[in-house]
Write a structure and sequence with these properties.
42% helix, Spore Coat Polysaccharide Biosynthesis Protein SpsA, Chain A, single chain, 9-stranded mixed sheet, alpha/beta
Amino acid sequence: MISIIVPVYKSEKTLERCIHSLTAQTYEDIEILMVVEELPDPSAILADKLAEEDARIRVIHCKNEGVSPSRNRGIQEAKGMYLRFVDSDDYVEPDSLALLMEAMTEDTDLVIAGYRHLYFGRDIPKIPRKGTYELKNLSEEEQEEIRTLYVDGFFNMPWNKLYRRDLVSEYFPTDLSLGEDLVFNQHYIASAVRLTVIDRAVCNYIQDDRGTTLSTKKRMDKLPVALRLYDEGRDFFSRLGIPAKGKPAIKTLTAFLDDIGLLAYDTELSKEALLGNIEEYATALDGLDFEGEEVRLSAPDHRMIYKALSKKKYKKVRRLIGYRKMAATLLGRR
């Protein structure tokens, strides 16, 4: 049986779509655990109503302490051999679980799949390269594939994966509200033996209202969180026993550039404060160890901002992110 854990908080507009996509799965040996914020959240009322429609649904009412405690509570309550996580504003296709279970052989510890990123009306497929990896005996080519999966973000989230419940030894960290999924996955993968990647999408990840999620709204702790994730990434490769080759630094640099770009949208920042924030990122950049690897950035705006940032040209960075904001506004992306 697969236990599907769905944290629920203020999601009355999307919850029914999410749950119905789970009850419609072609793989039917499941239980759906909705971990729900207590009343007066309207989602709690809807969750109880949905549970009446299908005996495989259980509702767990608890105080809202964040998504990590909710997922951890779901893990504790789960009765299945396998775990799947789904967010309440997302939904899955009918064969989603069947695809994951087909790849979950007796000696596989984790299955990773692709997903569709529905981003402001655009449908962006995110599909990894298919492969099977014996994590304790990786060839150089396979090591590079693991590094690619890491940099491309396929280790970041929990909802494109199928886990073995008895291999979960560390829960989602509750002292983070950004990057906690990545930390959980890295700990799990570091203790796994066999990893399978399938080149199919198993989830529709919805992001159509910028500013409503912790990963997109303004946060004051992004820089220290990014530096913690950098340290966690270096530790991850050390525990796997393979060279990191500067990948944690490259991944952290990309996070820096995304964060810097978002500073242009903060109307509360004065020009001086904005320059101060940019300087903080430049100082932090000096502490990243790229291990002699060449920095290759695919996005043209990232390349320009990085060049100016690395040369400490803070005013130029400010101008660039301003131009980027104007271009994005004209394209209707924000």
